[in-house]
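Progress note, project year one: complex with cobalt (II) ion.
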Amino acid sequence: MVLDVLTYPDKKLKMKSKEVESFDEKLHSLLDDMNDTMVDKNGIGLAAVQIGVLKRLFIINIPDEKGDQYPENLIEVINPRIIESRGETTYEEGCLSLPQYYEDVKRADEIVVEYMDRDGNLHKTELHGLGAIAFQHELDHLNGKLFFERISYLKRKKFEKDWKKRK
Ligand code: Y12
Ligand code: CO
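Model obtained:
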């Protein structure tokens, strides 16, 4: 089922999400609905809070070099942690909760992460490039942070002014 995506300045997007404790049918159905929603809206990452559910989980599907996405590349990430961060990279990010807004954001280039899958199995892996950027962007959502909070003060003020004007 395709769900509505909350957009800034919805208050829920500022809230911290809670750990997932039950790896049950309800969780599986939430993950399936999130994937339907992400595919429908042409996203490459979606956190549960973006559809109004304050749980520490997100999904990512990184496109290949041609920009194509495949269902088998979907990663479901539950109760994530970043264990190590290395280097720095800059990427022009977008977010389904901030439609038509794109800005350069600096993040770690390589990360080592731990997370659980839909059945509660623990995974540890190293990510780099777009995968690492997407993971950090989505983890920020679980802590109530949007990507414009990671840009310079002046760019942020301009964003806030422009965003109010577009209503
Ligand atoms: C790199 C940078 C950011 C992320 C986080 C996930 N971001 C998204 O999935 C953004 C999706 C997005 C989709 C849009 O819709 C279309 O392209 C049809 C979009 O367009 C408009 O707002 C009009 C903007 C953002 C992961 C990796
Ligand atoms: Co986002």
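The two ends are 28 Å apart (CA to CA).
Helices lie at 25-40, 129-142, 153-165.
No further modelling is planned for this target in the current period.
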